């Protein structure tokens, strides 16, 4: 019989305690006892005085938190057939960047191609305003710079059909477009005008863009340079001296929200293909909360049934397995919180399924132990032999499950990937629970086996 290391017992106890503190909510409402939420001791209560406080809230997906689902159709008429898949993928990446710039967590963005119909399905948790979501995704934010031209060719330029609104009025009919565009933009950031205190968007150009901007301002000293966004003149500053630093400001009567939206559009770039909205729907948070509560109740009831089953079938061994299963659940949920894994209904299903896998490992171990005890071996020896002989089967079955999970994570999308990720984490933790926690608990109480 191998002795259990005290350090291992301390390690398991610390992991369990830390996982418990991570999963404890910061406060809880207790009906009939207090009108105010009762503050509880969670992990941030300990970390806050040390300056190490972090967000360990459960990140919920669209089906739990509510949000917006939008189906977009891509117009591929002007795109060659050989380039349409690439254009669709590029559009998906632009949309994803825009949503990430906006600060939305874990959007689900998928593409679909069927019979020359190209679709992009966007699910944005936490955004209930459909119009806001559509505006965020669909605007192009084409940036260009215009300068005064030679009046001798004004008639030729004035005949052009694509003239941004306001350019002729401010720069004259001979105004011409420069070679500086949004493609030369390195980044856009929201700042505040030191004189007025109003929000503005500061543009920082790439090294090549900085050279272009310096040339433009150098040859237009004393003249107006127009900044055009989406074919509308938004600003027409007069150049007092060459600007060599590679920065410019777009200012106006912007609110912080408008300045942030403009920053997002400029940073994300333009969409390679036009998109139109086919379907848009809003999922309420109330429905998601009800679904979450039902899922939690179902998971809790399933856990209780497993405890009753294991205890009735294996007695003391079943009680030990149930304690190990409790440790497993706490550790797994703590990992979900620590790594900000988005939980959807499919993800919760993957977690509950992994509980069954964890129980399955204990059953294999206990059955091996019973076989050895039927051969007349003492319980202490049967314990070690049972774990040793069951390990190969547990290892192989879990590796097979992990291979399936990795395949789904790589090739799957949306809720399928979420299901596979939570299941994979559960499988890995179940190995720790079955082999380390269960064995340690059994060794501690070996005299009662």
Radius of gyration: 31 Å
Using the alpha-carbon principal axes, give the shape. Answer: elongated
What is the H level of CATH, i.e. the homologous superfamily of the largest domain? Multidrug efflux transporter AcrB transmembrane domain
Helix content: 40-55%
β-strand percent reads: 15-25%
Report mean pLDDT, rounded to a whole number.
78
N-to-C span: 13 Å
The total number of structural domains is: 3
Q: For the report, how would you describe the main beta sheet?
A: 4 strands, antiparallel
CATH class of the largest domain: Mainly Alpha
Number of strands: 15
CATH topology type of the largest domain: Multidrug efflux transporter AcrB transmembrane fold
Write a compact overview of the structure shown.
The protein has 449 residues and is an alpha+beta fold. It has 14 helices and 15 strands. The chain has helices at residues 6-23, 43-47, 62-65, 84-102, 130-138, 154-158, 167-171, 207-219, 256-268, 285-314, 316-338, 345-374, 379-411, 414-444; strands at 27-28, 38-39, 59-60, 67-74, 108-114, 117-125, 143-147, 176-181, 185-192, 199-205, 225-229, 232-235, 247-250, 275-283, 342-343.
Entry keywords:
Gyrase A, domain 2, 18% strand, 4-stranded antiparallel sheet, Alpha-Beta Plaits, Multidrug efflux transporter AcrB transmembrane fold, single chain, 449 residues, alpha+beta, elongated
Description:
53% of the residues lie in helices and 18% in strands. Helix 1 (6-23) crosses helix 11, helix 4 runs antiparallel to helix 9 and helix 12 (345-374) runs antiparallel to helix 13. The protein folds into 3 domains: 6-55 and 284-448, Up-down Bundle (Multidrug efflux transporter AcrB transmembrane fold); 67-140 and 274-283, 2-Layer Sandwich (Alpha-Beta Plaits); 143-268, Gyrase A, domain 2, CATH 3.30.1360.200. The model is unreliable at 152-161 (pLDDT under 50). With 449 residues, the protein is of the alpha+beta class. The chain is elongated, with a radius of gyration of 31 Å. It has a 4-stranded antiparallel β-sheet. It has helices at residues 6-23, 43-47, 62-65, 84-102, 130-138, 154-158, 167-171, 207-219, 256-268, 285-314, 316-338, 345-374, 379-411, 414-444, and strands at residues 27-28, 38-39, 59-60, 67-74, 108-114, 117-125, 143-147, 176-181, 185-192, 199-205, 225-229, 232-235, 247-250, 275-283, 342-343.
């Amino acid at each position: 019989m191998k002795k259990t290391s005290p350090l291992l017992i301390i390690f398991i106890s610390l992991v369990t305690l830390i996982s418990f503190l991570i999963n404890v909510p910061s406060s809880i409402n207790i009906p009939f006892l207090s009108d105010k939420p009762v503050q509880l001791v969670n992990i941030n209560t300990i970390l806050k005085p040390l300056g190490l406080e972090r967000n360990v809230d459960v990140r919920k997906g669209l089906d739990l938190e509510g949000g917006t689902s939008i189906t977009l159709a891509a117009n591929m008429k002007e795109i060659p057939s050989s380039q349409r898949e690439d254009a669709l993928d590029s559009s998906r990446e632009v949309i994803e960047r825009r949503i990430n710039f906006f600060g939305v967590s874990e959007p689900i963005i998928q593409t679909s191609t069927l019979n020359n119909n190209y679709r992009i399905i966007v699910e944005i948790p936490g955004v209930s305003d459909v119009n806001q979501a559509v505006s965020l995704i669909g605007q192009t934010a084409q940036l260009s710079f215009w300068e005064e031209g030679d009046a001798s060719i004004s008639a030729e330029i004035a005949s052009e059909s694509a003239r941004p609104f306001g350019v002729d009025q401010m720069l004259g009919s001979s105004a011409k477009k420069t070679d500086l565009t949004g493609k030369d933009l390195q980044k856009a950031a929201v700042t505040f005008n030191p004189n007025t205190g109003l929000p503005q968007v500061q543009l920082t150009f790439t090294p090549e863009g900085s050279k272009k901007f310096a040339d433009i301002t150098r040859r237009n000293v004393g003249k107006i340079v127009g900044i055009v966004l989406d074919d509308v003149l938004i600003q027409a500053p007069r150049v007092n001296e060459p600007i060599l630093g590679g920065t410019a400001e777009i200012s106006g009567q912007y609110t912080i929200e408008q300045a942030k939206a403009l920053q997002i559009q400029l940073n994300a770039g333009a969409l390679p293909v036009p998109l139109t909205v086919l379907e848009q729907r809003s999922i309420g948070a109330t429905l998601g909360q009800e679904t979450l509560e039902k899922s939690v109740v179902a998971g809790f009831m399933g856990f209780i049934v497993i405890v009753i089953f294991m205890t009735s079938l294996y007695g003391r061994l079943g009680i030990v397995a149930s304690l190990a299963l409790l440790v497993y659940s706490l550790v797994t949920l703590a990992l979900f919180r620590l790594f900000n894994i988005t939980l959807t209904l499919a993800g919760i299903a993957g977690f509950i399924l992994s509980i069954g896998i964890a129980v399955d490992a204990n059953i294999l171990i206990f059955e091996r132990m019973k076989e050895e005890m039927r051969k007349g071996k003492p319980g202490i020896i049967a314990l070690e032999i049972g774990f040793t002989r069951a390990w190969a089967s547990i290892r192989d079955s879990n590796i097979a499950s992990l291979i399936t999970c990795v395949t789904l994570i790589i090739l799957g999308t949306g809720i399928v990937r979420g299901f596979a990720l939570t299941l994979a984490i559960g499988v890995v933790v179940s190995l720790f629970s079955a082999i380390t926690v269960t064995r340690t608990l059994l060794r501690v109480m070996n005299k009662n086996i």
